[in-house]
Amino acid sequence: MNLTVEDRPPSTATMRRTLGVRDGIAIAASSTAATTSIGIGMGALAVYAGRQTPALLLVAFLPILGIALSYSRLNRTEPNCGNGYTWVGRALTPWLGFLTGWVILVANVVFMAYTSAVAGMVVLQFADKAGLHSLFGIALDPTSTAVTTVVGLVALVAVTVTAVTGVRSATRFQWVLLAFEYAVLLLFCGWAVVSGTQEFSFGWLNPFAIDSFHSLAQGLVLAVFVFWGWDAAFTVNEETRSASDASRGGLIALVAMLGLLVFAAVSFQRVMDTGTLVEQGPQALTFLGSSLSSEPWASLPLAALMCSAFASLQSSVIPTARGALAMGRDGTLGRAWTKVHPRYGSPAVGTVIIMAVAAGVAVLAMGIPRINTMILTAVNSIGLIVAFYYGLTAAACAVRFRGALREGAAEALRSVIVPAVSALVLFGLGAYLAFQYATMSDHFEARPDNGWFMLLIPSLFVVTGLVAAAVAKWYRRSPYFATGRGTDADAIALPMDDAA
Questions:
Q1: Mean pLDDT over residues 359-377, rounded?
Q2: What is the pTM of this model?
Q3: Where are its TM segments located (predicted)?
């Protein structure tokens, strides 16, 4: 028997409105994971942008800001924890809406899988510093995907427990981690800017100095991934006291992320030449610390990276479970995703399922022997998917509010023109790279520099999404595919919890 949304008991979709702007900032900032992005991403960006990495970040921010304004505009009209899934389904088509929700779900699971390995890598680097190089005859190699994944799975279980016990307690914990990691990041990056031996050049801010359009396009996709995560604030918009709290939290976190990324890019380049930065890869932040200070202070950036990885893992579990809850209550996913814990007010069952799936993906990724290779593979694949669903959401905003073209220049710019241009930029970027991937290799090989492999992974995201959509439409008979509308968050009893 297939239940429609109306058949479901209200208790399956009851969450508590306890969050404010501060909580939204914590979730968005932890999800973007500035320290993790800087620690493992600067080397990857330097591969394509070289000394123009700061310029690349500034250019990438422009369409992302347009996407963020689209999210904010849609959120004011229809706050829903499914956000893009709900908005795209209503404005464009339910098939694209479902696909948006699906690729967000899958991309977050893959992100959690590789971030757990990053957390494991950092723990093993600490073990190496402490002189612990093996355990039970197993070499504790921080560059090994297998060993880092096993350690990371323990971290994944731990953050899942904290996510289940309530989003409010989770955000309080994230603020502690954020305060520490940002303080360390600003201290060492500031130190690097002042004392670095590499001469600063304003040419670092010139995007036209990037070698080729292909390098610019590939670098922009990586930069989009680096900024990715601010939209996590919009997945708790049914748990905020007002819809505007989620919007402000996401936008504040995004602007802060831009400042941190550009500042860090300049500071890294003050200490390292391009060759060294590329060679260090995901160990670049650790290298920065050891270049500037001796132990034990040199380990502080590594500690900040560990805090960032744990906070990012936790903040990824939270929005992913809530997106799946929105899909579950619409009947496009199973009812298990809609079960909310009676004590903690969190989608506990969905949270645990997501953790288990992410753990499974992490185990499968152990077939990639070196963690540097696994990270680059995941980042390239997720970057294309993020460009895809951000573009769809911005396009949904432009279509839904197209009537604003008759309401004056300011409203037309904010609600239609900026979203439409941002969507076209990301679609164009994704299409260009897809073409490049399809033509750059003459054989298939599971490597991050093999075009067919890099195209296969995001293609699998989309193909599996279409299959899941077909199941939702014709087997589950979800009303979402008939109306194009998700369950209205305001129609569900969401009790206030003043004691929290």
A1: 67
A2: 0.83
A3: 25-49, 55-74, 95-124, 144-164, 176-196, 216-237, 249-268, 302-325, 346-368, 374-401, 413-435, 455-475
